[in-house]
Amino acid sequence: MTDEHTAAAARLRATLVDHGVFSRLGAGFWEAFLRGVVRAPDGLAFVALGPSDDLAGYAVITPDIHRLHEQVLKGRRLSMAMACAAGLARRPYLIPAVLRAAFRPQTSHPNLLRPQWVTVMVSSAYRRRGVAAMLFQLISAALHERGVEEFHSPVELDNDASNALQEKLGGTLDFVAPMDGVGHNIWRFHTAPLPPPPPGHVLCAEPGMPSPEAAR
Length: 216
Ligand SMILES: CC(C)(COP(=O)(O)OP(=O)(O)OC[C@H]1O[C@@H](n2cnc3c(N)ncnc32)[C@H](O)[C@@H]1OP(=O)(O)O)[C@@H](O)C(=O)NCCC(=O)NCCS
Known about the structure:
- This protein is α+β, with helices and mostly antiparallel strands and 216 residues long.
- The chain is built from eight helices and six strands.
- The two termini are 29 Å apart.
- Residues 16, 119-122, 127-133, 159, 161-162, 164-165, 168 line the site of coenzyme A.
């Protein structure tokens, strides 16, 4: 994920999610955060690009969301504080909620498997074209390669699209739990290696590699 991708992913996130304390701090805050995620030892992030290299979607998975937050903050407190302050300057009414969230440790659920799939966002222009499903395959294969057999994916109860996605991807609904005060379905997945591409398809052509046409 390049800096350009993180900026585009942050803009996408700010457009799609406008609820929750930190979500409402805007794209600048999320860009600072996602740059930290990409550099954090516990962050695993993938992007999906469109035909003109525009961002179609992105996904993040991590063993422990709270440890990831600590890693993002480590050595980046000043830039995160500045990004937060810029968001608060636009929406000062969020100040009490941000202070409360910063000083009250967020709750998780003790039965959650590690790792957890925490974010998948797909741009409206690319929905229902298998982008999230492809990001899922990449996540699953990357974890499989690292020897991880199973992971959990918490999804807010009222997020119909994402719950339908988890079911379609073969997740099993393990249990329902409140996380950060909001009810979540906890979906369980087995990891798997990437399936072979269909004949004639090239997943990713590097410079100097044969073009998809030439490979056919
Ligand atoms: C949920 C989301 C990531 C799905 O992305 P997507 O790329 O459109 O999903 P896919 O095309 O890979 O869909 C795979 C399957 O999931 C299910 N699905 C996806 N979106 C759905 C929707 N809106 N309604 C019903 N089922 C849906 C379908 O079964 C679909 O298969 P089909 O198209 O053959 O019927 C996307 O709608 C999104 O970004 N939403 C906003 C952000 C969000 O809520 N993220 C999740 C919480 S972090």
